[in-house]
């Protein structure tokens, strides 16, 4: 499957849905020009990333399959995060509408908004599938026999072992390894935020936040790191399931968005998108 071409096809299909509706004889944007430009930019970025994966899959080789697979997985929920940010913008943009006008608008806009939701879901599925395919390249390459001849003569004094020694696979860091490495990671990632902590305090506080992430349901190293960074940046209550920040609540407590790991990734992407769009992050609305 040419994943980049498929994303391009989906984008063209979405573009056929109207972005302006008429409510009470007035034209109202379902999507503003700025939002459409942002959506187009993000879609193009994902097409470029998918094309990189297509090239690797087609050739059967990749210099860094694990890295490319991680980038594909990371960007899979990007469109969903963008739509979440758009929804916050729309709430502010349309708040002056009367109840009747808003109801009419919601009805008229339903086709476009539904199409956007399907687009986001299909793009996410495609990139997730491509990430798995790219990750498989590492396995196929590691399984290739070593065709380089051994030019060294075998020493007669050294007996040949009955069973060849198999190379040990590289160790995948456990979550506990990640927690132990958090202080150094935080000093490099958010130095201004954690500079007030000495090493002991930073180690203690980062473990508290990491334990909270695990208690919430985080399983992956990446999700734990993201949770801890956001907890230091915005406060632990930001990620609490009982948060009063509605847009955060809509992500963290929505099982339809996937596992807790996936929801934490979506939340991080939504934070970045709100920054780009100059939307408040800690406001309750």
In words, what does this structure look like?
The chain is mostly helical and 285 residues long. β1 and β2 form a beta hairpin. α2 packs parallel to α5, α3 packs antiparallel against α5 and α6 packs across α8. The longest helix is centred in the middle third of the chain and has 44 residues. The radius of gyration is 24 Å and the shape is flat. 30% of the residues are buried. About 11% of the residues have low confidence.
Which structural traits does this protein have?
single chain; 285 residues; mainly alpha; two-stranded antiparallel ribbon
Distance N to C terminus: 41 Å
> What is the tally of beta strands?
2
Report the sheet-strand fraction: under 5%
Count of DSSP-assigned helices: 11
Shape: flat
- H-E string: HEEHHHHHHHHHH
Q: What helical percentage do the residues reach?
A: 55-70%
Main pleated sheet: 2 strands, antiparallel
What would the average pLDDT be, to the nearest integer? 83
Radius of gyration: 24 Å
Query: How do the strands line up in the largest sheet?
Result: 1-2
Judged by helices, strands and strand pairing, the structural class is mainly alpha
Uncertain segments are 143-172
């Amino acid at each position: 499957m040419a994943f980049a071409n498929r994303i391009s096809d989906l984008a063209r299909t979405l573009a056929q849905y109207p972005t302006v509706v008429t409510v009470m004889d007035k034209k109202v944007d379902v999507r503003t020009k700025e939002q459409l430009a942002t959506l187009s930019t993000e879609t193009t970025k994902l097409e470029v990333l998918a094309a990189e994966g297509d090239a690797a899959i087609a050739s059967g080789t990749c210099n860094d399959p694990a890295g490319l697979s991680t980038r594909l997985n990371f960007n899979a929920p990007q469109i969903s995060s963008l739509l979440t940010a758009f929804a916050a913008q729309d709430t502010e943009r349309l708040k002056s509408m009367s109840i009747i006008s808003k109801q009419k608008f919601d009805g008229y806009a339903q086709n476009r908004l539904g199409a956007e939701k399907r687009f986001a879901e299909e793009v996410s599925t495609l990139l997730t599938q491509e990430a798995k395919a790219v990750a498989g390249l590492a396995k196929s390459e590691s399984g290739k026999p070593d065709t380089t001849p051994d030019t060294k003569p075998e020493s007669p004094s050294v007996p040949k072992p009955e069973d060849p020694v198999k190379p040990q696979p590289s160790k995948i860091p456990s979550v506990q390894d990640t927690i132990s490495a958090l202080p150094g990671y935080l000093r490099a990632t958010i130095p201004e935020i954690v500079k007030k902590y000495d090493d002991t305090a930073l180690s203690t506080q980062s473990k508290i936040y990491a334990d909270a992430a695990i208690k919430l349901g985080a399983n992956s190293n990446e999700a734990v790191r993201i949770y801890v960074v956001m907890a230091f940046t915005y406060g632990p209550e930001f990620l609490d399931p009982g948060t009063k920040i509605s847009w955060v609540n809509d992500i963290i407590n929505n099982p339809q968005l996937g596992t807790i790991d996936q929801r934490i990734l979506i939340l991080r992407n939504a934070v970045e998108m709100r920054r780009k769009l100059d939307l408040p992050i800690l406001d309750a609305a």
